[in-house]
């Protein structure tokens, strides 16, 4: 295992600022540089966190030979291009979700990882949330028995978010519900069938040509008897914000609470009981353990939209950073790596294609890494 510290650059400082102090305290990282187009904002954040290397041009940042890895937190339409540029510049990549917006972009990233031997990790929050880690622990201890079915949903109202979200096909941002159903059994999706339902406001439809208020998709797992169902909505659907997953096992089943901040339910046979989800800070190095419950955006007067709606992402941020850095140090693949990230992302991309075709079954491409 490498003992060196990796020089990290964070790209995008809205949501991305949340990760700065985590990298600063992690023993494997040197929080080396930040990048944002708005020079005043970039310099303000640099000063606040004591970061000297401040860039407003991503291409210039990539020329810096001291940078080992970039953590991308920019708008979704930039993820693929910026990931590919970084890999071609010899940098490891951590990227917020989704990996890309087309199947072709996902393939290109997987191929570039194959060519360069560099590390890519999609920073999917739900699969490092305390809820997921709780269910994962139950599963690995054998308490669930055989998994029989998985279900997940991600419902939110995107009014008030930046303009590029307006009219986005629901399944084009589906990793928060696709991720957990594939990650728990460490499965890959083989094919999908998705139906669209309802209709969003007419003024929202032209940007992406997507009319649906809700999309719901069945996923068949590769080399498995398992299937899953995921549901996604973004506009014109009355529902409290919810990122949820349910797991049905032969011995026990877990069902996410219907109302945020209430307790979830475990069924043992036919007997239900409420369960308090513990924090999983004990899995982390001591110096970053506190970030499961506190961070940059935890004050009432300093909240990011993703935190207001996302309930702090389940304490996942330090777990994501720790997995990425340990993968680099141990020279191993992180979870999810490029292949797994592509499979998770393409479920959503192809699910929307299926919905537009009335539920047509669409097989996912093979993503291979040697």
From TrEMBL:
Q: Name one Pfam family in it.
A: GFO_IDH_MocA
What highest taxon heads this organism's lineage?
Bacteria
* Chain ranges of the Gfo/Idh/MocA-like oxidoreductase N-terminal domain: 6-122
Enumerate the GO terms in the molecular function aspect.
Answer: nucleotide binding
The protein here is known as Predicted dehydrogenase
Q: What is the lineage of its organism?
A: Bacteria, Pseudomonadati, Bacteroidota, Cytophagia, Cytophagales
């Amino acid at each position: 295992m490498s003992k060196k510290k990796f020089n990290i650059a964070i790209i995008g400082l809205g949501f991305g600022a949340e990760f700065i102090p985590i990298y600063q305290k992690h023993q494997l990282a040197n929080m080396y540089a930040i990048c944002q187009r708005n020079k005043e904002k970039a310099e303000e954040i640099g000063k606040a966190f004591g970061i000297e290397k401040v860039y407003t041009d991503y291409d210039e940042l990539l020329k810096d030979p001291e940078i080992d890895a970039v953590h991308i937190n920019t708008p979704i339409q930039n993820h693929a291009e910026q990931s590919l540029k970084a890999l071609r510049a010899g940098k490891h990549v951590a990227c917020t979700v989704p990996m890309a917006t087309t199947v072709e972009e996902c393939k290109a990233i997987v191929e570039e990882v194959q060519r360069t031997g560099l590390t890519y990790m999609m920073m999917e929050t739900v699969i490092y949330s305390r809820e997921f880690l709780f269910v994962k622990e139950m599963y690995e201890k054998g308490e669930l028995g055989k998994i029989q079915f998985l279900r997940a949903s991600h419902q939110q109202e995107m009014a008030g978010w930046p303009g590029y979200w307006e009219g986005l096909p629901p399944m084009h941002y589906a990793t928060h519900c696709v991720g957990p159903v594939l990650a728990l059994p460490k499965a890959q999706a083989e094919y999908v069938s998705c139906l669209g339902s309802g209709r969003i406001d007419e003024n929202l439809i032209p940007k992406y040509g997507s009319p649906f208020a809700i999309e719901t998709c069945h996923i068949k797992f590769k080399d498995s008897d398992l299937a899953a169902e995921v549901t996604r909505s973004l506009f014109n659907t009355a529902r409290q914000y919810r990122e949820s997953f349910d797991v049905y096992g032969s011995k026990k089943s877990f069902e996410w609470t219907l109302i945020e901040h209430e307790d979830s339910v475990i069924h043992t046979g036919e007997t239900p009981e409420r369960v308090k989800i513990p924090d999983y800070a004990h899995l982390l190095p001591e110096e970053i353990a506190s970030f499961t419950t506190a961070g940059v955006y935890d004050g009432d007067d300093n909240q990011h939209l993703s935190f207001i709606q996302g309930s702090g992402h389940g304490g996942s941020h330090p777990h994501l950073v720790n997995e990425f850095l340990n993968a680099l140090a141990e020279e191993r693949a992180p979870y999810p790596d490029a292949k797994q990230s592509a499979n998770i992302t393409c479920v959503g991309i192809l699910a929307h294609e299926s919905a537009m075709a009335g539920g047509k079954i669409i097989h996912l491409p093979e993503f291979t890494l040697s």
